[in-house]
């Protein structure tokens, strides 16, 4: 019998969790109820939703800090920020297009999953922007971690631990995070015709310059046409984003182009096209294809990405594009998830981690969605979990199989 | 200074076995790794928080991770406390040992293992100094961003343990934002790798948890850090304001205008006077507050940014504006600020506080800080990183006068509590250590602290790692620190 719990106050949520802990009744935690299965299937006796805990609590643009209840829709946050010319630096992706889900992503869900987009490789992940949280542990205690200041080394940084813990350690009720000024201007430089290896080298060169590239992606020919309504120039597109004050962007673009022009034909996108392109990259547009074909998100050292893809291509049907200077691979498999193969090759080229973001229910039942961990780390995680959630009621089975 | 901070009772069983322990360690390690003559232990009895000192049982200076693991495994088996140590520049007593503890110093592990420019990473041993990374990669146009003022001496291991930051972290973040991976040894001798050259990691963010954990969770032996391409140029501008409110409002407006300088440093009148008398940097003496704002980029970019910033400062009635026209002028502007601690040390003894407050509370906290010091009959000078609200009130006193010393300590505690009450925290970069351990319950509820303690115990159930630090001695679980 599945119970739906939607507290509207923090203390009410604490009571519900305490009662569940006493009864050893497990709870699946969800934000916007975009619950279609990501991660391992959670078998829980109840569902605890943050949707009733909604609204911005405090926002002072001059301080660049926002406090919001966990169930606040991300859209509401983004709107408030836009009104003040600010943004979430980590550029969180909207997973709905690629997952084919509906519902309202919440700000708590963003931090609980540590979801970050293209700017992550220079501006940090969601967890880097998260300054403080209020949360309820598995004993039903309402607790705080961190605060609302950027620098804080007072005790253990449980904020980082909770970020990306996928609701297995605590129920977030309120999050406080840092925001940044929205860049006045942006543009994207496109290098056309490079193969994956050449593109990787070009992106590394771009990152070695003092031009502050804030997006570096490579879109092979197989996906190029699925961005910007197929208006990118012919051939694979290696795209580099510059953002900032208008004067800065112009100066940096000139420098970037003069350094890279011997490598490939170069063209540019203006601010508006650039904005659309990076949103499409962020939301993995090419694979928002209405299918449930297995989709992997793999994070490796930037220069290893193309080697991983080259090695896999010999043995599996994959389609792929690169973000984060080549270190983030979005890979769609033609039929099976091929998890073992992906991970085997990934470890051969120097390691990283692979997450199965999308797959059919059947495939998810047999494939590990998260990267398997070494035994010592797994044991440590299990001890941490039991210190935060001793009765093991939160999202059982979500992160680790078994 | 007064002896108000207490240490744990040394474990009798450990003290009683001292010679056996030393003999066992001598078997485990090459001869050059073990220090145990009392005379040789003296350099390890304290760190930069010199008010307190204790001779350790022995000091181990390993060459590699395997030796660290062997020693920890041994100490775990026999219940011997361990204190990790980098360069000993901690300002909160984080590396001060006890009579029953083995200090594990990472100073011999000071090799840069790999520099990978294409991936913009450097992998180093934990005992490498902060500055040596930037020195190594500088000629290729890169740097390692976190820049604590102690960077010439302090180690990456210590930086990770303290999550250190510096003047430039407004733009680039602190250690945790620039750390990609570590190799570390758990108390039972298990070696684990967290992160690597890739971004983020599978499972819980243990790397984020380890950063800033003050040697409570394990000993870091290697680290992979992020390198950043050096900006084309950097240029500071100096502003003098007739009130600290105006200076504070100027900071808020610069940020509100969408400009993130790399550094915004603030000095109040006492600090300006002290620094100017020492550094002769040409600071204006007829103002109440001074800001140093630094921007980076190409000439054209810096011009544009500085023009906007100066415009904003004028709106706040700025009295002095000094734009540096040359590298020499830029160095002079920074010279006064950088000599703040040294200059203060020449005129008086001082304790340097390290609270952080929300930007909107800056003026209020500055005013109250002055009142608190005055209430104790003491002087205070304020120098701090205004962009992120990290305050460093320097409380001046005479260390030869025990009454005044006790007052300075009490005033310091009041100021830290003030920071917490204003929505900030006890420490922004120096850490809790033994210094602020007993104030933790001012910032956290008992239940909040207990949750941190339980997470700590997932790593080290016997409380052998740096045991008298960070968490108040009372209220620990019964097993903790048992003799
Ligand atoms: C590559 C990728 C793919 C993803 N795919 C999916 C997907 O298919 N389905 C999906 O639901 N999400 C998915 N996510 C997460 C999703 O993109 C974002 O986190 C989004 O914000 C979801 O918001 P939500 O409110 O709908 O959270 P939910 O989808 O309801 O929850 C997402 C996760 O966060 C936890 N969580 C949510 N709110 C809280 C809270 N207040 N306290 C503690 N834990 C909480 C949940 O237990 C769950 O583990 C994915 C993330 C990534 C990076
Ligand atoms: C003049 C001066 C200026 C300073 N300015 C700044 C500043 O601007 N910003 C700032 O953040 N700090 C500053 N500090 C404080 C200090 O330099 C930092 O905390 C520094 O990170 C300590 O590094 P260390 O190598 O000296 O570590 P130590 O002092 O030796 O140790 C510090 C702590 O780290 C632990 N530790 C050390 N190495 C390891 C390891 N390998 N594994 C696990 N734990 C370990 C120790 O147990 C201890 O708890 C300053 C200090 C001085 C004296």
Distance, first to last CA of chain B: 28 Å
Low-pLDDT parts of chain B are: 479-483
What value does the Rg of chain B take, in angstroms? 23 Å
Give the CA-based shape of chain B: globular
- Assign an overall shape of chain A: globular
- Largest protein interface, residues of each chain: A-B, 87 and 96 residues
Number of helix segments of chain A? Answer: 15
- Measured between the Cα atoms of the first and last residue of chain A, the distance is 22 Å
GO molecular function (chain A): catalytic activity; FAD binding
Domain FAD-binding PCMH-type (chain A): 1-182
Keywords (chain A): FAD, Flavoprotein
InterPro entries (chain A): FAD-bd_PCMH (IPR016166), FAD-bd_PCMH-like_sf (IPR036318), FAD-bd_PCMH_sub2 (IPR016169), FAD-linked_Oxase-like_C (IPR016164), Oxid_FAD_bind_N (IPR006094), Vanillyl_alc_oxidase_C-sub2 (IPR016171)
Task: Describe this protein's structure.
- The complex is a heterodimer of chains A (402) and B (483).
- With 402 residues, chain A is an alpha+beta fold.
- Chain A folds into 3 domains: 3-181, Uridine Diphospho-n-acetylenolpyruvylglucosamine Reductase, domain 3, CATH 3.30.465.10; 185-283, Alpha-Beta Plaits (2-Layer Sandwich), CATH 3.30.70.2190; 286-366, Metallocarboxypeptidase-like (Alpha-Beta Plaits, 2-Layer Sandwich), CATH 3.30.70.
- Chain A is built from 15 helices and 18 strands.
- Chain A has helices at residues 10-22, 74-83, 96-99, 107-113, 120-123, 126-129, 158-162, 196-208, 221-224, 246-260, 271-282, 305-313, 339-348, 361-366, 375-388, and strands at residues 3-5, 27-30, 46-49, 56-60, 65-69, 86-87, 130-136, 142-146, 171-178, 180-181, 185-192, 213-219, 237-244, 266-269, 295-300, 318-323, 328-333, 352-358.
- In chain A, the strands form 5 sheets. Chain A has a 5-stranded antiparallel β-sheet with strand order 4-5-9-7-8.
- The longest helix of chain A has 15 residues, at 246-260.
- The two termini of chain A are 22 Å apart.
- The mean pLDDT of chain A is 94.
- Chain B has 483 residues and is of the alpha+beta class.
- Chain B folds into 3 domains: 1-230 and 444-483, Uridine Diphospho-n-acetylenolpyruvylglucosamine Reductase, domain 3 (2-Layer Sandwich), CATH 3.30.465; 234-341, Alpha-Beta Plaits (2-Layer Sandwich), CATH 3.30.70; 348-421, Alpha-Beta Plaits.
- Chain B is 36% helix and 19% strand.
- Chain B has 18 helices and 18 strands.
- Chain B has helices at 12-16, 18-28, 38-41, 65-78, 130-137, 156-162, 169-172, 175-178, 206-210, 244-256, 269-279, 299-315, 327-338, 340-347, 362-375, 402-421, 440-443, 446-459; strands at 34-35, 58-60, 82-85, 102-105, 112-116, 121-125, 142-143, 179-185, 191-195, 219-226, 228-229, 233-241, 263-268, 289-297, 320-323, 349-352, 379-385, 390-397.
- In chain B, the strands form 4 sheets. Chain B has a 7-stranded antiparallel β-sheet, with helices on both faces. A 5-stranded antiparallel β-sheet of chain B has the order 5-6-10-8-9. In chain B, strands 1-2-4-3 form a 4-stranded mixed β-sheet, with helices on one face.
- In chain B, strand 5 and strand 6 form a beta hairpin.
- The longest helix of chain B is centred in the last third of the chain and has 20 residues, at 402-421.
- The radius of gyration of chain B is 23 Å and the shape is globular.
- The chains are: A alpha+beta (402), B alpha+beta (483).
- Chains A and B meet through strand 8, helix 7, strand 10, helix 8 and helix 10 of A and strand 9, helix 9, helix 10, helix 12 and helix 18 of B.
- The structure holds flavin-adenine dinucleotide (2 copies).
- One flavin-adenine dinucleotide is lined by residues 29-36, 38, 50, 70, 95, 99, 101, 103, 105-106, 108-110, 112-113, 115, 166-167, 171-172, 297, 357, 395, 398 of chain A.
- Chain A: This is Glycolate oxidase FAD binding subunit.
- Chain A: Residues 1-182 form the FAD-binding PCMH-type domain.
- Chain A: It comes from Rhizobium rhizoryzae.
- Chain A: InterPro entries: FAD-bd_PCMH, FAD-bd_PCMH-like_sf, FAD-bd_PCMH_sub2, FAD-linked_Oxase-like_C, Oxid_FAD_bind_N, Vanillyl_alc_oxidase_C-sub2.
- Chain A: Keywords: FAD, Flavoprotein.
């Amino acid at each position: 019998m599945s119970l739906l719990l939607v507290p509207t106050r923090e203390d009410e949520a604490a009571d519900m969790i305490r009662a569940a802990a006493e009864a050893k009744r497990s709870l699946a935690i969800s934000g916007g109820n975009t619950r279609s299965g990501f991660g391992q299937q959670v078998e829980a006796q109840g569902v605890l939703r943050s949707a009733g805990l909604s609204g911005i609590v405090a926002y002072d643009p001059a301080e660049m800090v926002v406090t919001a209840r966990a169930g606040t829709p991300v859209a509401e946050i983004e709107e408030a920020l836009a009104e003040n010319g600010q943004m979430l630096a980590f550029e969180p992706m909207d997973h709905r297009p690629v997952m084919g889900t509906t519902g309202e992503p919440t700000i708590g869900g963003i931090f609980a999953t540590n979801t970050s987009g293209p700017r992550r490789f220079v501006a940090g992940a969601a967890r880097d922007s998260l300054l403080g949280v209020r949360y309820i542990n598995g004993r039903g205690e309402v607790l705080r971690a961190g605060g609302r200041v950027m620098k804080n080394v007072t005790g253990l940084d449980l904020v980082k631990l909770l970020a990306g813990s996928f609701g297995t350690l605590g129920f977030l009720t309120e999050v406080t995070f840092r925001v940044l000024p929205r860049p006045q201007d942006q543009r994207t430089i496109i290098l056309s015709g490079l193969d994956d290896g050449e593109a990787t080298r070009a992106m590394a060169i771009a990152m070695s310059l003092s031009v502050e590239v804030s997006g570096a992606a490579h879109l092979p020919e197989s996906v190029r046409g699925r961005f910007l309504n197929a208006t990118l120039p012919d051939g694979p597109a290696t795209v580099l984003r510059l953002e900032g004050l208008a004067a800065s962007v112009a100066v940096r673009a000139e420098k970037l182009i003069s350094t890279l022009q011997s490598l490939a034909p170069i063209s540019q996108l203006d601010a508006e096209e650039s904005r659309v392109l990076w949103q499409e990259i962020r939301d993995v547009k090419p694979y928002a294809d209405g299918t449930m074909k297995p989709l992997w998100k793999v994070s490796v050292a930037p220069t290893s990405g193309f080697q991983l893809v080259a090695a896999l291509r010999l043995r599996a049907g994959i389609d792929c594009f690169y973000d984060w200077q080549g270190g983030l691979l979005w890979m769609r498999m033609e039929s099976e998830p091929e998890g073992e193969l992906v991970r085997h090759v990934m470890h051969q080229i120097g390691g990283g981690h692979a997450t199965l973001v999308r797959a059919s229910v059947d495939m998810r039942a047999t494939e590990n969605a998260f990267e398997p961990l070494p035994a010592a780390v797994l044991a440590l995680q299990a001890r941490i979990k039991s210190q935060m959630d001793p009765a093991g009621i939160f999202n059982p089975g979500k992160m680790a199989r078994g | 200074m007064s002896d108000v901070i207490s240490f744990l009772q040394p474990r009798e069983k450990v003290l009683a076995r001292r010679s056996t322990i030393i003999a066992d360690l001598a078997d485990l390690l090459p001869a050059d790794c073990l220090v145990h003559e009392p005379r040789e232990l003296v350099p390890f009895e304290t760190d930069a928080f010199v008010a307190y000192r204790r001779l350790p049982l022995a000091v181990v200076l390993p060459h590699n991770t395997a030796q660290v693991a062997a020693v920890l495994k041994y100490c775990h088996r026999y219940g011997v406390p361990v204190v990790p140590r980098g360069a000993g520049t901690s300002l909160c007593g984080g590396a001060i040992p006890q009579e029953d503890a083995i200090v594990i110093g990472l100073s011999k592990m000071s090799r840069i293992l790999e520099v990978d420019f294409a991936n913009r990473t450097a992998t180093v041993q934990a005992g490498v100094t902060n500055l040596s990374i930037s020195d190594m990669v500088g000629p290729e146009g890169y740097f390692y961003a976190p820049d604590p003022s102690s960077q010439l001496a302090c180690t990456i291991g210590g930086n990770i343990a303290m999550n250190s930051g510096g003047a430039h972290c407004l733009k680039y973040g602190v250690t945790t934002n620039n750390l990609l991976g570590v190799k570390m040894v758990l108390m039972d001798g298990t070696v684990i790798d967290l992160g690597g050259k890739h971004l983020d990691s599978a499972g819980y963010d243990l790397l984020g948890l380890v950063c800033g954990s003050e040697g409570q969770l394990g000993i870091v032996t290697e680290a992979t850090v992020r390198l950043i391409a050096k900006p084309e140029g950097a240029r500071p501008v100096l502003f003098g304001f007739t009130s600290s409110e105006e200076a504070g409002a100027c900071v808020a407006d610069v940020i509100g205008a969408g400009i993130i300088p790399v550094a915004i440093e603030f000095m109040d009148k006492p600090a300006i006077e002290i620094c100017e008398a020492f550094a002769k940097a040409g600071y204006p003496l007829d103002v109440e507050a001074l800001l140093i704002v630094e921007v980076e980029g190409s000439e054209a970019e810096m011009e544009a940014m500085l023009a906007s910033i100066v415009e904003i400062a004028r709106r706040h009635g700025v009295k002095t504006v000094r734009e540096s026209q040359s590298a020499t002028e830029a160095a002079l502007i920074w010279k006064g600020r950088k000599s703040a601690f040294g200059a203060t040390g020449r005129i008086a003894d001082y304790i340097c506080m390290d609270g952080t407050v929300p930007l909107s509370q800056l003026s209020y906290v500055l005013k109250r800080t002055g009142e608190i010091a005055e209430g104790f009959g003491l002087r205070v000078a304020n120098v701090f990183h205004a962009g992120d609200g990290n305050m460093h009130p320097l409380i001046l006193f005479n260390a030869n006068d025990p009454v005044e010393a006790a007052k300075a300590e009490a005033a310091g505690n009041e100021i830290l509590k003030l920071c917490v009450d204003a929505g900030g925290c006890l420490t922004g970069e120096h850490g809790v250590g033994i210094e602020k351990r007993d104030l933790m319950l001012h910032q956290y509820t008992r239940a909040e602290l207990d949750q941190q303690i339980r997470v700590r115990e997932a790593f080290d159930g016997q409380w052998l790692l740096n045991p008298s630090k960070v968490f108040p001695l009372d209220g620990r679980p019964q097993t903790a620190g048992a003799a």
